[in-house]
Amino acid sequence: MAHIDRRDRNGAVRYVARYVDPTGRERSKSFTRRADAQKYLTEIEAAKLRGAWVDPAHGRVRFAAWFQECWATRSTCGPRPGPQ
């Protein structure tokens, strides 16, 4: 079940939204407003029910991997000729 924890640190209040993903792993995200945390949890739970939930880590690509893939598609590395 999803829930929100209030954290007070050095006078700053943060709201931590916690939920369990479909694989059983607990995940969390921090917000400055409780309303934003609640909206996030509502969207996550709806996505889980629809079967549309995507692991947030799947969208992360390391720069080195991205660079290698992108660089391999470059045909030339020199300057392009200007208009004549």
The multimeric state of the shown protein is: single chain
Order of helices and strands: EEEHH
Taking all Cα atoms into account, the compactness measure Rg is: 21 Å
User: How large a portion of the residues is in β-strands, by DSSP E?
Assistant: 25-35%
Low-confidence stretches: none
| CA(first)-CA(last) distance | 66 Å
Strand order of the largest sheet: 1-2-3
Structural notes for this entry:
By secondary structure, the protein is of the alpha+beta class. It has one domain (3-72). Helices cover 32% and strands 26% of the residues. It contains 2 helices and 3 strands. The protein has helices at residues 34-50, 63-72, and strands spanning 3-9, 12-20, 26-31. It has a 3-stranded antiparallel beta sheet, covered by helices on one side. A hairpin with a 5-residue loop joins strand 2 (12-20) and strand 3. The chain is elongated. The model has no long low-confidence stretch (mean pLDDT 87).
